[in-house]
Fold this sequence. Notes:
The complex is a heterodimer of chains A (126) and B (157).
Chain A: E1 9-12, H1 16-28, E2 34-37, H2 40-49, E3 54-58, H3 66-74, E4 84-88, H4 93-101, E5 106-109, H5 114-125
Helix pairs in contact in A: 2-3
Chain B: H1 6-21, E1 25-27, E2 31-33, E3 42-49, E4 53-61, H2 63-74, H3 83-106, E5 112-113, E6 117-120, E7 134-141, E8 147-156
Antiparallel strand pairs in B: 1-7, 2-7, 3-4, 3-5, 3-6, 4-8, 7-8
Helix pairs in contact in B: 1-3
Amino acid sequence: MAIDTSMRVLVVDDFATMRRIVKNLLKRLGIEDIEEAEDGLQALQKLKSEKFDLIVSDWNMPNMTGIELLQTVRNDPAMKTIPFLMVTAEAEKDNVFLAIKMGVSNYIVKPFTADVLEEKLKKIFG
Amino acid sequence: MNVEYINPFLTSTINVVSTMAFMKIEAGTPHINRGSATTGIVTGVIGLAGSSVLGSVIISFSKEAILAIVSNMLGVEYDSVDDDVQDAVGEITNMIVGGAKRILSEKGFKFNLAIPTIIKGEDVSLNLKTRGPRVVIPFTIVDNSATFTVEACIEEH
């Protein structure tokens, strides 16, 4: 199944480099409508005022971590159905279980390629 | 320092550079850093702490190495170690240490990672509070012979 390239994506990472890499990879998949946030708190502000079809968030961030953002999103009736792709450099089993328990849609381990990202998006939206 | 700590950093470094920057690198022979200074022009440092381990990982790049890696990673040519490049050093440090953490956790070594600090400048003295030797793994980028090092200083308590 092809990915809907008109989707609006919020990319959350405290490192501009990773936001750029994720944006580049999404663009390679044909997705152009991408917003950025530097941490969970900034992401929440954007999520409350704008509509997004997917959140791609790092785990380890200052102010509000990815798992805290996921928990907040899943507990908010207005946002709880937004697909949430967690990006992590660690992916230890305990962390993965915690993310699944919190309702993550899928997770991706850094470093990753465009093919891996595409496969994860297909799993989420397939 | 337990030699079991070293290999995961070697494996993770090769994985990160080859996946994100599409570059082949070779590891040299690990040795002990007797001094306190950084080896490159820009350095990422990350602390780790667990119930039985405490340590720091220091990843230090020569100018040629980091410019080549970041240019490939972001698809834009960089000719100086600017804010973008320093930010990338932080993220590369995160990914390398995160990957090593994953391998080490499977071996039963559990710890948490801090957020990396990026230091710009040559011969910067790092006064680590971790006791024990700093084991250095030197790396060379095959295409341009540029070098960088990954140092781990981990103590068990």
